[in-house]
Amino acid sequence: MPLTLAHDVKIDPSRDSLARQDFISTLRGHILTTMANDMKLRFEETVSPAFERSKGRAPETQDEVHAAMRKDLSFKFYSAVRVNAQEMVWRSVIPAIEQNMAVLEARADAAKAGAKGSLTLNPTLAIPSNVGAVDVHLMPGGYALDAGLAPGAIYDSGLAVFSAGFMGKNLDDIGQSMANYVKHRFPDFKPERILDVGCTIGHNSTAWAETFPAAEVHAVDVAGPVVEYGHARAESLGLAVHFHQMDARKLSFADNSMDVVFTSMFLHELSVKDIKGFMAEAHRVLRPGGLFLTMELPPNHELQPYDQFYLDWDCYYNNEPFYRTYRDQKPADLTSAGGFAPGAYFQFTVPQFSYMPEDAFIEAVNNPPEIGGDTGRLSDSVQWFGFGAWKAVS
Question: Is the pTM here over 0.85, yes or no?
Answer without folding.
Answer: yes
